[in-house]
């Protein structure tokens, strides 16, 4: 089965959509990532497998192929862990996304811990601003990045602490935390 989840990456100061395409097929268990991934993305295989196992309690023992499109642009960073994991869970049938959640409107970014927690990432504000420019309506970020991310305008920012929270949200079983941030209040907390 095939699943597609969208994320964003930065090339300098320009952002572009990354389509995380996952195909799960019969055959010997394997996990391949293609589409010009850097070393941190190639290492995502182990983080994602462990996070899935420690979140849902079982391992997906199939032939997993992850394509990061566009394939002609080098991708960098561990923040693609989260969209890779969600795409695998969708392709395996573990997550059945509710029709009310249009995956084409949602951008996912986040690094996974082996236990399924979502770690803080760098550059989240720039990614949120670019996500809004690229037409995303909603972006899901690590909970620890929410305040920074919510400075971006005209995009709904939601935060999650762990993979299980996002699974529940996509299946319409729970809500994700959102906050409103006033930029003036943030600027007033910065020491002179």
Rounded mean pLDDT is 91
Straight-line distance between termini: 55 Å
The fraction of residues assigned to DSSP E strands is: 25-35%
Residue ranges: pLDDT <50 for 5 or more in a row? none
Spatial strand arrangement across the major sheet: 1-2-4-3
State the helicity in percent bands: 25-40%
Give an account of the 3D structure.
The chain is an alpha/beta fold and 192 residues long. The chain has helices at residues 39-42, 44-56, 81-91, 124-133, 146-149, 163-170, 183-188, and strands spanning 2-11, 14-25, 30-34, 63-69, 106-108, 111-112, 118-119, 138-142, 156-160. It is built from seven helices and nine strands; from the N terminus they run βββααβαβββαβαβαα. Strands 1-2-4-3 form a four-stranded mixed sheet. It has a three-stranded parallel sheet with strand order 5-8-9, sandwiched between helices. Strands 6-7 form a two-stranded antiparallel ribbon. Strand 8, helix 5 and strand 9 (156-160) form a beta-alpha-beta unit. It is globular, with a radius of gyration of 16 Å. It starts with a strand and ends with a helix. The mean pLDDT is 91.
Distinctive features:
192 residues; alpha/beta; four-stranded mixed β-sheet; three-stranded parallel β-sheet; 9 strands; 29% helix; globular
């Amino acid at each position: 089965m095939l699943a597609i989840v969208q994320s964003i990456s930065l090339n300098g100061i320009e952002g572009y959509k990354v389509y995380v395409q996952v195909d799960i097929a019969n055959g010997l268990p394997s996990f391949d990532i293609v589409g010009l991934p850097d070393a941190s993305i190639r290492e995502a295989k182990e983080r994602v497998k462990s996070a899935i196992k420690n979140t849902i309690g079982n391992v997906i023992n199939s032939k997993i192929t992850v394509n990061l499109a566009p394939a002609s642009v080098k991708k960098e960073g561990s923040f693609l862990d989260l969209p890779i994991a969600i795409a695998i869970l969708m392709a395996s049938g573990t997550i059945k996304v509710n029709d009310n959640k249009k995956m084409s409107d949602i951008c996912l970014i986040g690094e996974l811990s082996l236990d399924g927690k979502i770690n803080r990432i760098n550059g989240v504000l720039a990614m949120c601003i670019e996500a809004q420019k690229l037409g995303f309506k909603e972006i899901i970020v690590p909970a620890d990045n929410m305040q920074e991310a919510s400075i971006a305008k005209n995009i709904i920012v939601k935060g999650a602490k762990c993979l299980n929270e996002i699974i529940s949200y996509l299946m319409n079983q729970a809500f994700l935390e959102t906050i409103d941030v006033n930029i003036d209040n943030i600027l007033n907390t910065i020491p002179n």
